[in-house]
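Continuing the series of single-chain predictions for the mutant panel. This is the parent chain; the variants come on the following pages.
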Amino acid sequence: MSKLALKITNLKVNYGAVEALKGISIDVEEGTIVALLGANGAGKTTTLRTISGIVEAQKGTIAYFDEDITNKEAEKIAGLGISQSPEGRHVFRDLNVEENLKVGAFTVKSRKQVQLNLQQVYGYFPVLKERRKQIASTLSGGEQQMLAIGRALMSSPKILLLDEPSLGLAPLIVRDILKIVQDIKKTGVTVIIVEQNAAQTLKIADYAYVLELGTISMHGPASELIHDPKLIQAYLGSH
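Parent structure:
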C-alpha cells in the first residue's frame, strides 16, 4: 500500500475576516502528482503557502509522512524536504542562473550533493546549463520558470510544490515543462501542482482536487475527472 507523503485534515485559513480555506482535507500519496485546480481566489495558492509554512493555519492539521508540521517555521519545513516553486517565478533577478540555483540548495550540507543536484537540474533543463552565467533578469519567461523549478529541486525535496508553472507561457513551453514534471515524478519526488490550465494538468496528474471558494467541490483520479461533464463545462472549455 502506498504511503501518504502529505495528509491535510480540516484545514482552515483566514486572511483577516476572509475565510480563504474553509476546512479542506487532502491526501497525497508518495510518488504521485496531485493537481489542485480551480479559478482565481479558490484557495489553491493559500493551500501551498500553508503547507510550506508561509501562511498560518487557524485550524486543522498538516502531516508530512505522519509528522505534524502544522505552523512550523518555513525554514524547518524546507529542511524536512518540502520545496516550493512560487507563482510568478520570483527568481533573484540580479544573480546569474547558477547562483540562483545554488541559493536553492541552502538546506543541503554536502557540497557533493549540491553538485549532483546541479547536474540533475541541468539534465532536466539543458538551456539553463547553456545560460548558467547569464543574469536571471535577462532570461525569457519560460527560462525563468525553468529556473524557479530548478531552484526548488536543488534542495533534494521529497515533495515539490509547483504554483502555476504554466502562467503566461506559450503552449509549447507549457508542454515541455509538464513533461519534465512527469520526469521528476519518476525519480520518486511527490509533486503537488496548482494550475488553472486544467486540461493539460489532468493529463499528467494521478489525482486531482477542485477548489471553489475555499472548499473542495470535487476530487478523484485525474483520468476520471478529465471526462467529468461538470469539470469540462467549468474549466476545460471545449477540450
